[in-house]
Amino acid sequence: MAAESIRPTASGIAFRKGVSEGGAFAFVHPAPAPTPISEAFMANDKIIQGTEANFEKDVLGADTPVLVDFWAPWCGPCKAIAPLLDKAADDYAGRLKIAKVNTDSAQSLAIRYGVQSIPTLLVFKGGEVVNRHVGTLNRAALDTLVGKAL
After folding, report:
1. Whose C-alpha in 23, 27, 72, 131 is 20 to 30 A from the C-alpha of 117?
2. Paired residues of 67 in beta bridges
3. What is the mean pLDDT of each run of 10 residues along the chain (150 residues)?
4. Is the pTM of this model over 0.85?
C-alpha cells in the first residue's frame, strides 16, 4: 500500500489518499479535540498533575513514595482505574502521593521511563523507580504494588 499524501486542513482534518491492492482509497480523520485533564481523570484534588515542569520536584524530590500513573484521555483502561486511584489517594494520604502523567502532553517523561503501554504505574521512592505495573489492576494488586515502598 502506497499512500500518496497526508495533509492537514485548516479545520484540523487530515485527509489521506492512496492506492492499495484492492484499488484507490481515501480517509478523512477528524483531529481529536483536546480534553481537559481535570475533567474525569483528576477528580481528587490530592492527585498531582505530573508535568515535565514539576516532575523533578513533585515526584523525584518527594519526601514520601509516589505512585505515578502514566495515562491518556483516550485510554479505556486508564479511565477504568481512575476511581481506584482517587480512592487510594484518600486512603494513603500522608504516606503516599499519587501523580498522573498524561503521555500525550508529557511524552519525554514516558520515553525516559520506558512507558510503552498505558496505563503504566510506577512507584518512586527516593527519586528511584522501585516497582512497576502495566495494565489495569484491582485494589489488592495496587496495595501490593505500593506496599513495598511504604
Report:
1. 27
2. 98, 123
3. 47 49 53 48 81 96 97 95 96 96 96 97 97 97 95
4. no
Which of 66, 67, 78, 115 is catalytic? The answer is 78
Q: For residues 122 and 108, give the distance between their C-alpha atoms in angstroms, rounded to a whole number.
A: 15
Is 75 tagged catalytic? yes
Q: Spot the catalytic one: 75, 99, 109, 118.
A: 75
CATH code of the region 47-147: 3.40.30.10
Query: CATH 3.40.30.10 occupies which residues in the chain?
Result: 47-147
The continuous run of DSSP H or E covering 26 comes out as strand 23-29
**Residue 115 to residues 40, 62, 132, 134, Cα–Cα distance (Å):** 22, 21, 10, 9
